[in-house]
Amino acid sequence: MKTFKDSAGRAWTIDVNVGSLKRVRAVAQVDLLDVHDTALYPRILTDSVFAAGIAWAFVSDAAQKIPITQDQFDAALNETAAEEMAAAIVGAMHDFFLKTRPDVAAGISKMIELKAAMLPLQLQELDKMTAKRLMQSNEAKATTASGG
């Protein structure tokens, strides 16, 4: 089991068991046990909308007791909460596979490590793009100001 908090401070638990995996298949139409889908776990880590559908399948019973709707749940997933949610899903699946399929658990661990390693590179690239756009904007302003 892994937990995460939404932006309203509510704690949610991702509890992987046969029942919750069946709900994910039915509600989100995703098979988290498909070990041959090599894009699945990276997508969970990078696509917050996709991951939110999976998370809702895990937490919908608890949400109904509060009660909150799926739209309210989704609205409470800001950037930080969405990141924690995705990590909780992938971490819970890692733990689920750890005893029965250590090879799959190791693969999930590797994906998490790669995502963490990619973040600084993505931020550097974003900084370069921002600097380039800023320079282009300044050049355009200078050209306009000089009458060119």
Give an overview of the whole structure.
The chain has helices at residues 18-28, 40-46, 48-65, 70-75, 79-100, 102-145, and strands at residues 2-5, 11-14. With 148 residues, it is mainly α. The protein has one domain (2-119). A hairpin with a 5-residue loop joins strand 1 and strand 2. The model has no long low-confidence stretch (mean pLDDT 86).
The SSE order reads: EEHHHHHH
The order of strands across the largest sheet is: 1-2
Number of helices: 6
Shape: elongated
Beta strand count: 2
- Average pLDDT works out at 86
Structural class: mainly alpha
Helix share of residues?
Answer: over 70%
Count of domain modules:
1
What is the gist of this entry?
By secondary structure, this protein is mainly alpha-helical.
Key features of this structure:
148 residues; mainly alpha; 6 helices
Please give the structural blueprint.
Layout: E1 2-5, E2 11-14, H1 18-28, H2 40-46, H3 48-65, H4 70-75, H5 79-100, H6 102-145
Antiparallel strand pairs: 1-2
Helix pairs in contact: 1-3, 2-5, 3-5, 5-6
